[in-house]
């Protein structure tokens, strides 16, 4: 593995993507009482039900993923993922320090759509950089590499499990429905941004409808 110009370009794309994902949490998820997707949503669930610190949940999930990730992912992707997981925490700390105000919508569904689009663009850029932000995205990459499951389906499956656990314990039904919509949009936008073959497939479909 070499630290060439391509590596630093990918690292820059990754850091921007992680920043957008963290910004979406700050702008849309928290102010509108939505559940977050992936490892962030799991950390909220663990904190509510068992009183476990969100930081500890993230650490306990990421630690084995990074230990065993070397068996499934290339060293380059593993290193970028380490940067991505670290950047996630730093971006959240920066946005908190800047006291960026969240956006509360009168129609909750708009918050879900906004979160799905912005977080999907952010994580899509992370995938485009050939890195991850750890957690569910890293697990989804492993699933994609070794089971041929498309990354959007793997992400949505993980999010669905987290959402059901949240609904059973603390999440109101309307917020659950909107979060589920957000997760679906997130998974599709992530794949659209991050996977060239999927973009080409969508373009071909558009040509069929617009000859």
Description:
This protein is mainly α. 79% of the residues lie in helices and 0% in strands. It has helices at 5-29, 38-50, 54-69, 75-98, 108-128, 135-147, 151-169, 173-194, 196-209. Helix 1 (5-29) crosses helix 4 (75-98), helix 1 packs antiparallel against helix 5 and helix 8 (173-194) crosses helix 9. It is globular. The mean pLDDT is 84.
Mean pLDDT: 84
N to C succession of SSEs: HHHHHHHHH
Classify the beta-strand content into a percent band: under 5%
Specify the number of helices: 9
Radius of gyration: 17 Å
Distance between the amino and carboxyl termini:
45 Å
**Net shape:** globular
Secondary structural class: mainly alpha
Low-confidence spans = none
Biggest β-sheet: count, sense, barrel?
Answer: none
State the total count of DSSP E strands: 0
Helix percent band:
over 70%
Concise account of the structure shown:
The protein contains nine helices and no strands.
